[in-house]
Structures are given as C-alpha cells and as structure tokens.
Design brief:
alpha/beta, Double Stranded RNA Binding Domain, six-stranded mixed sheet, 6 strands
Length: about 210
C-alpha cells in the first residue's frame, strides 16, 4: 500500500521543482554608479515607472510592486501615482508641486528598453551606461516618456529588458544606472516582482540604501 503512494508523491515533488526552476529570473546585465553616493543615505524613495500613458493600470502595478520590494528592505518607498495624476508630465514645477513635502532622498525611474521573442536583446547589445543625456533627471524623463508611449510591453516566452536609473533629489543627479534582463516571464507581474527584489538587493548591497 505504501508503494502505491510513493510514486505519485515523487512525481508531485519533481514537478514542483521543475515549475519553480522555470520561473522568471531577473539579472542586472550592465550598470554604472557614482561612488560618492554609496553612503547609505537613502531612506525615502520615490518610485516612478515610465509606461505608456494609455496603460495606467500597468503603471499602477509596476510602481506598487517596486514599492513593496523596497519597503521589504526597510526603505520608505512611495509610488508616484499616489501623489500625481498618471498622465501628467513631470517637470521642475510639477515635481515641487506634488513631491516637495515628502522629503525624498532619491527617485528611482524605470522604463522598458526592449522585448524580444528570440532573445536578440542580451548583455552584448549596443548600449552605453549611462547614456549621455541621462545625468539630468528631466532630460531622461522626457526621452523615456516618448519611447514608452510608442512601444509594446509584454507577451509570453520573451526576454524583457528594462533600464532603471536612480537620481538624488537635491540636484536631480544620476547616481546609479542599470540594465536588467528578465527571462521567460508569463505576465507583467512576473517581471515586476522579480525586478523589484533584484533592485532592492542590488542598491542595498552597493551601499545606496540605508540599513
């Protein structure tokens, strides 16, 4: 009688292992950082996802997912959609209007770079980190919004490449930039969850986030 139950149990366990191992994984495949800011000074963080303005629900999920990941690391993170209309453009005036009272230490900006079904977008593709215009927050933001509004997002069995930049809030200066690659996600939430965990761990281990 015992043998009758052992084989199904083994099959179930083996299947679970395969299922887990086949889940989406995110890796940082390229990065740049400003060493002088690796002082653990970031306590309060604004998360800004640059997504097609016709997809506010995706933006909501993206920002909330990254906020949850940073909060799990002890950082007081907030989503831009909690304070500013999703379809409003950020400039120096609107930034002060919506975010000046939050006493933010940094802004994390993430956007889609590419989606590829045949995995031609890999660590070896032509990209300079950081791109020359990204040292200022607003220049990067405007360029990224134009790209997001004209690009597709996610389908099954693809490689999703995202760019994430971290800016300090005093001078809106770029202090960290990274390119991430998520392999074989089934849905957008897979990318968000995996990316959030990797970013929180990376920025903490490199000394940007407060312990």
């Amino acid at each position: 009688m015992i043998k009758r139950y052992i084989l199904p149990l083994i099959i179930t366990i083996f299947s679970s292992i395969i299922f887990i191992s086949c889940g989406p994984t995110t890796k940082i495949i390229g990065e740049w950082s400003e060493d002088e800011y690796k002082t653990g000074s970031i306590h309060n963080l604004l998360v800004l996802g640059i997504v097609d303005q016709k997809k506010p629900l995706l933006k909501r999920k993206f920002e909330d997912g990254l906020v949850d990941a940073f909060k799990s690391s002890g950082i007081d993170a907030v989503a831009s959609m909690d304070y500013m209309p999703y379809d409003e453009i950020i400039d120096s005036t609107t930034f002060e209007k919506y975010f000046s009272d939050l006493e933010l230490d940094a802004v994390l900006v993430s956007r889609l770079v590419g989606v590829d079904k045949e995995r031609r977008v890999t660590a070896g593709y032509a990209y300079t980190i950081p791109y020359s215009s990204y040292y200022g927050f607003y220049g990067h933001y405007y360029a990224a919004v134009q790209y997001a509004n004209s690009s597709s997002y996610l389908s099954k069995n693809v490689v999703v490449v995202l760019e994430t930049n971290l800016y300090e809030t005093k001078d809106k200066k770029l202090i960290w930039s990274g390119i991430s690659e998520t392999i074989d996600p089934d849905k957008a939430s897979d990318v968000i969850k995996s990316l959030g965990a990797v970013l929180a761990d990376k920025l903490s281990s490199e000394g940007f986030l407060a312990n």
